[in-house]
Amino acid sequence: MNTDSFSEENLVVADSDAQSKRRQFLRHGAAAVTGALAASAGLRSAIAATPTTAAEDAAPAAQGTLSIPPWSTQSGAQVGSHPYGTPSRFESGVIRHLRKTDKQYFSSSTRSPLQELDGIITPNGLFYERHHNGIPDIDPAGHRLVVHGLVQQSLEFTVNDIRRFPSHSQIYFLECSGNPGYTVHAKTAAEANGLVSCAEWTGVLLKTVLKEAGLKPEAKWIIAEGADGAGMTRSIPLEKCLDDAMLVYSQNGERLRPEQGYPLRLLLPGYEGNMSIKWLRRLQVADRPVHSREETSKYTDSLPNGKAREFTFVMEAKSIITSPSGGQQVEGHGFHEIKGIAWSGKGRIAKVEVSVDEGKTWQAAVLQEPVLSKALTRFVFPWQWNGESVVIQSRATDETGYTQPTITALVEVRGVNGTYHNNAITPWRVAADGKVTHALA
Ligand SMILES: Nc1nc2c(c(=O)[nH]1)N[C@H]1C(S)=C(S)[C@@H](COP(=O)(O)O)O[C@H]1N2
Ligand SMILES: [Mo]
């Protein structure tokens, strides 16, 4: 590889007009400190032994309308003072949403602050959490995964053993089937739909590990069990295990967070979050499902006729406008970009439509790249707000042609006994004063 191509000079646009513009730009004192970091001069100042400040460089006349802020007149914090980086202290309000009743050890959850996030990747510290008996503190050295049952050979793995398999990385959303439940009193997007997040997961395809153990012909299901106090156990059809199911050890480049199942979790792309067993310790290959607590008393769908449907695996298409959304304030008439996220457990998002007139008419939003299968997709929609009270909402259609329903349409089919798999449209009302609230709450 020619390392010269990474040299400083090559990072600068070569044509002389651009060069002279750049010189002019650099002369503009304070602004140059941030600007220069982006341009190649940043490399030079980063290796310079003596710190320079904008104030030393600046010609007073070149300040435009800007005065010199205090942070441009002195060195910043010592390099290396944050061995593990954290957000700016001015972003300390961007945290997971915790209801008053959520701060306890047994069945509980926290929600991603969807209204504060951009793009499609959820930062690890803001990934939603759903725990049934708190967060175990597992020493990976003492953790084992056993694969047994209808296999040619039972196997026991350490985390390092699992890391020796060929690795696989993919971006997938994860959503709790209780997101958001059917009694909606949500003030914000986090409260309305914050039990969904999206990450780049790294691990090994489950089928690779199963192949190592060798499946017996009667194998049809896999029973997965967690090492937490809840002993979370779910039955998974073998087809899913031989398809895109993953054993995950990393999330967004770093090892899983304890909250997400450190040191090892199952990830079943597009399936209800509950089945992606965290702190995974056991995979039992079986010929039938086990009908565990989590697939009988919980995570079944109570139907209008009093019966319950077991095994609703796939999360259907959903979307939500995250900006402007509940709790926010639309400032000023004129242009605003409506932004949101869409996802489907069945594959790619094909289209998102936005209505800004209480659902009377719908227009196509722009899907931002990348549009990935079973991942969050970002959509944007240019909007002119004339200052009237309006209801804005989005609806997603996935590549199978399925379209996200209204809550009325959903309840017509499912009734009101159930608590899971509510993928209905979330409408927001923008009042004349710009205040945004949940239009159904
Ligand atoms: N061992 C174990 N696995 C578990 C759970 C749990 O409590 N224990 N919760 C499940 C539920 S209901 C969901 S929605 C997802 C949540 O994953 P997250 O906390 O990483 O967002 O994990 C699932 N896996
Ligand atoms: Mo869940």
UniProtKB/TrEMBL annotation:
Give every Oxidoreductase molybdopterin-binding domain span. Answer: 132-291
List the molecular function annotations (GO) for this entry. heme binding; molybdenum ion binding; molybdopterin cofactor binding; sulfite oxidase activity
Q: Which InterPro entries match?
A: Ig_E-set, MoCF_OxRdtse_dimer, Mopterin_OxRdtase_euk, OxRdtase_Mopterin-bd_dom, OxRdtase_Mopterin-bd_sf, Sulfite_DH_SoxC, TAT_signal
Record keyword Amino-acid biosynthesis present: no
Query: Can you give the residue ranges of the Moybdenum cofactor oxidoreductase dimerisation domain?
Result: 312-426
What UniProt keywords are attached to this protein's entry?
Answer: Metal-binding, Molybdenum, Oxidoreductase
Cofactor(s) needed, names only, are:
Mo-molybdopterin
Please tell me whether the keyword Metal-binding is annotated for this protein.
yes
Q: Which Gene3D superfamilies match?
A: 2.60.40.650, Oxidoreductase, molybdopterin-binding domain (3.90.420.10)
Gene Ontology terms describing biological process: sulfur compound metabolic process
Protein name per Swiss-Prot or TrEMBL: Molybdopterin binding oxidoreductase
* Source species of the chain: Advenella kashmirensis W13003
